[in-house]
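Lab channel / #folding
Pinned by the channel admin:
"Please post every new chain as: sequence first, then the structure tokens as a reply. Keep commentary short and put observations after the output so the thread stays searchable."

First post following the new format, from NK:
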Amino acid sequence: MKNSLFRYKNTVKGVYGLSKIRSFILINGGIILLSVGVYFFKIPNGFSTGGVTGIGTILGKLTPITSGIWIWILNIALLVVGFIFLGKDTGIKTVYCSMAYSGLIFLFEKFIPLSHPLSNQPFLELVYAMLLTSIGSAMIFYSKVSSGGTDILALILKKYLKINVGKALLCVDFIVAASAFIVFDIQTGLFSLLGLFAKAFIVDSVIENMYSCKYFVIITNKPQEISEYIINELHHGVTSQIAIGEYTRANRTMIHTVCKKIEAIRLREKIRSLDPSAFIIITNSSEVLGRGFRSE
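Reply from TO:
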């Protein structure tokens, strides 16, 4: 009993440690993608697709202060709101994301100054701007953090109004994107609005894809071996029941479990090695709530 409890505690500790490492990688990867998309593609073209980035791009055009410094100033102002409404833990992580994101933009301005867009293809640059910033934002949101700015307002709307992140961002950023018509020109305004709508859908799509899991139904003669592998190696729960095949009238065990997509191939191959005659049904699950997955 003591050995089992010790093994369980070590397993929980290991899973928690891996989760923190994964979160750290996702957050920092998201910050890099977001910064590259904003500095190299959004700011040079004047794409103000909402948020602090959009406001900073507009103010950078209207004032002698650079867009990077405006982004930094606005992020600091909105961080206070994050501490009040999103709690201390989210607030601390958001401070890190916000400062790292603003700092990277500032460093790019200092060491890789850009006076014009990278190409003469604004639509191509809009595609790169939206893909990089949307995927970066989704990676950060997936870790229950924001990159600061109006992303904080989007998380507040999600928390209190129960709407998804993409629609919240759309509500918050529409006015900022529309202002590009006045500050820049009609073409830039149209590109900005297109980018705004694209970002809302891409962010939701990427987040949903990151949350999606695989649901396994396994009919097998080796339930103990398969269950032990799922519990001890994948650290997921198992539900089993006796099933009767109407064709053969034989009793077999039906196992139900859910795992992350990255674990699905390993589980399928392991089942095949343990019980080549096992019948396996694998379906997609868009969202799973509970221990080992999402908590809310």
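NK: Residues 2-45 form the longest helix (44 residues).
TO: also worth noting, The CA atoms of residues 170 and 200 lie 6 Å apart.
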